[in-house]
Specification:
alpha/beta, 8 helices, globular, 314 residues, Rossmann fold, binds FE2/S2 (inorganic) cluster, 3 domains, Ubiquitin-like (UB roll), six-stranded antiparallel sheet, Elongation Factor Tu (Ef-tu), domain 3, 19% helix
Length: 314
């Protein structure tokens, strides 16, 4: 973790502000790759993940963009309402859980609303290395779409389709039909949009291995509570009860076992823990369908068990 200052705060669209973060002494920031995000420590105990949306070759700044969601868990409201230029913020080094696949001959980039942030960074990178790509950016209206000007520049305009609900919505089935074997798909946005794109891709025959996704928030409908179950700590043999209203992380914390966490919503993968026996009830948005089916790891911040006991590699 290290401190940066907010060098610039700027309105990008209706309800969306961008924040440019730099070192106070002007020194270069740790490098990052397209699709990376940073943890932002908001000083009130909250830690939130935001994708970097500036060019990955830049080292003098990180840029994030944040949607103002008054009903959010607090991160977006805090950044919009309480953080101003010149203010110091504590952030983590960039991490990338949504990287571009180096073997792709063509990439389809799908962004829904504020999901444009990592997708824009990916488009910048693909354009920079002269790689083939198309970008589909869906938003409710032009007024609510950030970075439209940047995407209208000659470097992007020919490969970019802007799809506004009130003008030209995205014809997803037409775009995804006849998937080529060396084309990869990347999608980021709200849960409903992600399901819309991923379900259409599966229906058109795309294999999971070429579907890459990053969620912005946990599914709001997801039920975090459930039945009680046991966890067994493999190294000690200790067996602990997880009550219906407790998370595995809570139970581990109570006995002094600290698994690193960040989002605590099943989005970031920070808490990923190996499962040696038993079947997890996966409630995260992080693991792919193939990884879930293997049942050898889970996210203890939100996931539970489908068997009476899980043996954890701790
Ligand atoms: Fe982010 Fe568990 S802390 S997935």
């Amino acid at each position: 973790m290290f401190d940066v200052i907010v060098a610039r705060k700027q309105n990008e669209a209706e309800g969306i502000s961008s924040f440019e973060l730099a070192r106070e002494d002007g020194q270069p920031l740790p490098p990052f790759s397209a699709g990376a995000h940073i943890d932002v420590h908001l000083g009130n105990g909250l830690v939130r993940q935001y994708s970097l949306c500036n060019r990955a070759s830049e080292t003098h700044r990180y840029q994030i963009a944040v949607l103002h969601e008054p009903a959010s868990r607090g991160g977006s409201r805090f950044l919009h309402e309480s953080v101003e230029e010149g203010q110091r913020l504590r952030i983590g080094e960039p991490r990338n859980l949504f990287a571009l696949d180096g073997g792709a001959r063509h990439s389809l980039l799908f962004a829904g609303g504020i999901g444009i942030t990592p997708i824009l960074c990916m488009a910048e990178r693909l354009q920079h290395v002269d790689a083939s790509f198309e970008l589909f950016y869906s938003a409710r209206s032009r007024q609510r779409a950030a970075f439209v000007e940047r995407l209208g520049e000659p470097a992007f305009a020919a490969q970019t389709r802007l799809c506004f609900d009130d003008e030209t919505p995205l014809d997803i089935a037409a775009v995804l039909m006849n998937p080529e074997s060396d084309t990869h798909l990347y999608v980021c946005g709200p849960a409903g949009y992600m399901a819309f794109v991923l379900d259409a891709a599966r229906a058109a025959g795309w294999p999971e291995s070429r579907l890459h996704r990053e969620y912005f928030g946990a599914d709001p409908e997801a039920n975090r509570a459930g039945e009680a179950f046991e966890i067994e700590i493999a190294s000690s043999g200790d067996v602990l009860l997880v009550a219906p209203d407790q998370s595995v992380i809570d139970v581990l914390y109570d006995v002094g076992i600290e698994v690193p966490v960040s989002c605590e919503q099943g989005i970031c993968g920070t808490c990923l823990t190996r499962v040696l026996d038993g079947v997890p009830d996966h409630r995260d948005s992080f693991l792919t369908a193939e990884q879930r089916a293997a049942n050898n790891q889970f996210t203890p911040c939100c996931s539970r068990a489908n068997t009476p006991r899980l043996v954890l590699d701790l």
